Amino acid sequence: MENQDKIAGEEEEEMSGANGRAPGSAADSRQRQAEPEQRMVWKNVVLMSLLHLGAVYSLTLLPQAEPRTWLWAYLCFIVTALGVTAGAHRLWSHRSYKAKLPLRIFLAAANSMAFQNDIYEWCRDHRVHHKYSESNADPHNATRGFFFSHIGWLFLRKHPDVAEKGKKLDVSDLLADPVVVFQRKYYKTSVLIMCFFMPTFIPWYFWGETLWNSYFLASILRYTVALNVTWLVNSAAHMYGNRPYDKNINPRENRFVTFGAIGEGFHNYHHSFPFDYSTSEFGLQLNPTTCFIDFMCWLGLASDRKRASKQMIEARKLRTGDGST
């Protein structure tokens, strides 16, 4: 396992941000000073504003909705989150484990429920984020502030460096997966079905919930909450918390984000060991996504989980950690 860990670390070095520059270098300073052109995407501003207003209104419907509808909305949230964490992130972006066809189909459908761009685009941008973290090539560069890294990056046209660097990455593995290609081809249809139709239809059909309550609670509120907990990984987990593994990078360990994003808040660890399927040295602790992947392995639907060895983790802590635990 230790040899496998070392090989995995070498394969993923590019995605960990090893771009030949020390954080805080003169090159970094010049890059941060090159402010991108502020071109607003007004369609996204309007749609996101309406979405969040709809989510606030949804809260007023909770008292009149059936408890089964609350539970259904929460179940949809968990499926939505897994489509991002176990799917687009740990499986397709970092190739930290392998999944058989039935599991990949489920995760692709769950990813469409998340409605955060198709798997191909999500993974391409995420790989750029890791390789060029906190630079103009990072789609949600946290050095531009909390608001930008949380949601503001969606309100502006991408910096040209994001597209330029993204074109240079090897994404042939994504295009070789027929599930990824199919989801990309039929993405809009799959989003309509998985993100909006199915969450609304099930409570109305099976226990007589009103379509109005079903739509706003299981679709709008659930979708908005899922978006924001994902965005907190880009914003809060890059700004608030300790750095026990590498004090020279921005990503932090953030328990609040870990809880909301079902295991994705161990972010200093993740950027230090991006190949690790658990994104944490603590295994199942506060990590429902790791529990899910382990369960899929037990069922025979997943395999080849990559892990950083204890020796590798301790050596990294001693070499670059901030001394915290």
**Largest beta sheet, briefly?**
2 strands, antiparallel
Question: How far apart lie the N and C ends?
Answer: 24 Å
Element-by-element helix/strand order: HHHHEHHHHHHHHHHHEH
Assign the structural class, choosing from mainly alpha, mainly beta, alpha/beta, alpha+beta, or little secondary structure: mainly alpha
Family: Belongs to the fatty acid desaturase type 1 family.
Cofactor: Fe(2+)
Membrane topology: Multi-pass membrane protein
Main location: membrane
Structural summary, described in words:
With 325 residues, this protein is an all-alpha fold. It has a domain at 37-241. It contains 16 helices and 2 strands. The protein has helices spanning 2-11, 26-33, 42-59, 67-93, 101-114, 119-131, 146-150, 160-168, 172-175, 178-185, 187-207, 211-234, 255-260, 267-272, 288-299, 310-320; strands at 98-99, 302-303. The protein has a two-stranded antiparallel sheet with strand order 1-2. The chain is globular, with a radius of gyration of 20 Å. Mean pLDDT is 91; it is low at 1-33. Residues 71-274 form the Fatty acid desaturase domain.
